[in-house]
Amino acid sequence: MDQNRQGARASYVALAVFVALWILAPSAVRRFNREAFVEFQAPALHLLGKSRDLATFWEKKSRSVEEMAAAGRDLARVNAALEIQINKFEDIRRENVRLREITHYNVPAEYMSVVARVATRDSSSWWQRIVIRKGRNDGIRPGAPVVFGNTVVGRVTAVHLTTSEIDLVTSPGFRCTAYLEGDDQNHIVLVNGVASNSLGTAKARVSVIPRDYSIPAGQPARVFTTGMGGVFPSRLILGYLDGGTYATQVGNFKESLLVPSRDLYNLQEVSVLVPLHQNPGEALMQGDQFQ
Amino acid sequence: MGWAWLILLLATYPWLLGADLASDALASSSLIFFLSGTCLVAPCRRLKRWQAVLFAACLGFLFEARRPIPDGVLALSLVAIAIFLSSNRQLLRNTPGMLRAAAVVNVSCCLIWFLASSYGSPSPATDLAGQLFLQLLLAGIVGTIGLLPIALTQNAVLDRLSIPPAPDNP
Question: Which of A60, A65, B71, B84 is least surrounded, with the fewest CB atoms within 10 Å of its CB?
Fold first, then answer.
């Protein structure tokens, strides 16, 4: 019994020494350790995502011919509507090219789009994240914006070999500047995620709203990215203002809550917009990519 | 057998993956299906202390790997719990004792990662008591209900590896 007690005491002392060493160890050691455990789990996450895709495939394959025919008919209608839109965009593109030729202005395509499937979602009070099945091997870099269509989903926080972690718009670590719909003077407001404290849908906070701003009547006000800071392209939709605005404690500005424009927990696929050239914010994130 | 802890970890991993899947389903409610503490209880009865320590550390690091929790907080806490449990095996002699230990360990570990995350979080939060209570309640229930199937799996693996029930003095 004494031997047991002595052994336990020795183990506690060894643990205390290890804790001290762990705290003093260079961050590279801790990062390597974390990366090793992430890579250990990556194949299982891929398998999980792929088996989910397979289940969806078989579920769809088991549908009746009538159902498929109805779906095809609906799709054909949607395609017809989209074709009209494409023609409109083609006209706009032509005009854009013509104007650029006039001004001799050549804008480089700034982003490369990488489409990725969602492997798993993970959410608590302190983080709202998704893991996608593409990583460093596919050219994804930390800090890159993640979108679905023209709506912002979040930002890449950590990149591993074959997987990446994305902080959603509602995650406490997320911050960006935005414009509000209906604000003619284009005041810049700040959007940041808040720690979730309810069982309801997670939301973000919109702060620094000018006092004279009033929400357009009859529709929820949309919140757009500004394009400043070099992370998000401009005019992407972040979400909608939830209800009214309320004055802050100081009273100089107003605040409101932001409802994401998509159900972030039902996304199956997202696009990562990887900047072709590294921006300063991205370089800063590389030293901090695990937090 | 020296590698028993690693084989046991691989055998336990599907349970952790299942917990991740359940967390995925619970994502819209901001709750995590936490099982790491429960997975530690049964092995502490039979593994040697150093093996239990390595097993606990890996369990903790697996949970921390993809989450913004300060490095090593949960893993080292689980190691301390593993040392305690493997030094006090009389607490785990019967099923009620194990169930109690599973609930306590799982809830404690859940509290540790929640507080560690709040410490490391970039934005302050107010009125989180309700959410913390729900998370701890879920951890307690999951820890208690999950213990029996997990312990069955782990014991089957340890039996196959011919690991005898550990003596009181490790």
Answer: A65
Q: How many CB atoms lie within 10 A of CB A227?
A: 14
**Strand A237-247 to strand A253-260: parallel, antiparallel, or no bridges (unpaired)?**
antiparallel
Domain of residue A134, CATH code? 2.40.10.340
Residue A56 lies in a domain: no
Question: Do both A99 and A197 map to the same domain?
Answer: no
Euclidean distance between CA atoms A258 and A178, whole angstroms = 11
* Enclosing domain of residue A11: 2-51
State the smallest CA–CA distance between residue A143 and chain B in angstroms.
15
Q: Is residue A57 part of a domain?
A: no
Q: Which of B28, B32, B168 sits opposite A4 (nearest CB)?
A: B168
Interface predicted TM-score of the whole assembly (ipTM), two decimals: 0.90
Tens digit of pLDDT for each residue in B16-51?
Answer: 999 999 998 888 888 899 999 999 999 999 898 999
Q: Are residues A11 and B168, on separate chains, in Cβ contact within 8 Å?
A: no
Interface size between A and B, measured as CB pairs under 8 A: 154
Q: Are A167 and A155 in contact (CB under 8 A)?
A: yes
Number of domains in chain A: 3
Tell me: do A131 and A192 sit in the same domain. Answer: yes
Please name the residues between 93 and 152 in chain B that touch chain A, using a CB distance below 8 Å. Answer: 114, 117-118, 120-128, 130-132, 134-135
Contact A224, A236 (CB under 8 A): yes
Task: Give yes or no: residues A23 and A124 share one domain.
Answer: no
Question: How far, in Å, CA of A212 to CA of A245, rounded?
Answer: 11
Calculate how close chain A gets to B48, using CA atoms only, in Å: 11
Domain match, A152 and A209 both: yes
Cβ neighbours of B126 in A, within 8 Å: 197
